[in-house]
Amino acid sequence: MPNRAHDEPILKVRDAVRRFGDRTVFRGVTFSVRSGSCCAIVGSNGAGKSTLLRCIVGRDRLDDGRITIGGKDIDESSARFRSEVAAVIGNAATFAHLTVHEHLQLVATAHGATQPAALATTVLEAVGLTHAADHLPAVLSSGQWRRLMLASAFVRPRRLLVLDEPEQHLDHAGREWLSAALRQEKQSGTAVVLVSHDAALVSAVADTTVDGDAWR
Fold it and tell me: N or C: which end of the chain has fewer CB within 10 A?
């Protein structure tokens, strides 16, 4: 698929404000992300970066401002929204008695994949977890668990991929793999928004950066 980085932005954040009581978490946040490009949100802990990601995917709400994806307001209950946005924010739940492969099949089926088993196999190979396909998620190492969470996003349809510190728990080889995977996402036309503290990852994949420390 050709890179469509010059198209109308997939994600637009305009004058976003979020408060918790008397505390302003962030304010005046404005940026956009186009297809085939990556925006990295950087800054110190407590700057509100993860809160902003939750607002982007509909798990939290703004107090003021607007976020649109594909020109539409955020609606996590919309089938259109779920077909366009895949995210890894925190640790998603898994079923205790489903294997890694079965978990990915379930996610793929829930999002309309026509051949969920084949897709799960392909994605497990891509994320380096083929050897763990028949394992239960509970026995995975922290690095393997992170790869499973990313795989759960990669079996979903997406125009926008939203990731909160995806490098967590990955060793050097894992971070190299992640960098390559995100570059492939961009090449396929997916827009990527990520929060990261890994300067090397940001340098390798980000086309633009947003400084969370400027929001306070």
Answer: N
**Cα–Cα–Cα angle for 124, 128, 132, rounded to 5 degrees:** 65
Q: Which residues contact 36 (CB under 8 A, 6 or more apart)?
A: 3, 4, 5, 186, 187, 188, 189, 190, 191
- Rounded to 5 degrees, what angle do the CA atoms 176, 201, 81 make? 100
Q: Measure the CA–CA gap between 183 and 136, rounded to whole angstroms.
A: 29
* Claim: this prediction has a pTM higher than 0.85: yes
pLDDT digits (tens, 9 = 90+) for 148-199: 999 999 999 999 999 999 999 999 999 999 999 999 999 999 999 999 999 9
- Helix (H) / strand (E) element for 176: namely helix 172-187
| 8 A C-beta contact, residue 12 and residue 67 | yes
Q: How many CB atoms lie within 10 A of CB 201?
A: 21
Going by the DSSP 8-state scheme, the letter that residue 184 receives in this structure is: H
Which residue, among 43, 28, 27, 35, has the nearest Cα to 11 in the 3D structure?
35
For the sheet with 11-20, list strands across it: 23-33, 11-20, 64-69, 72-73
Q: Which domains does the chain have, with CATH numbers?
A: 11-215 (3.40.50.300)
Residue 63 φ then ψ, to 5°? -90, -25
Give the separation between CA 172 and CA 66, rounded to whole angstroms: 37
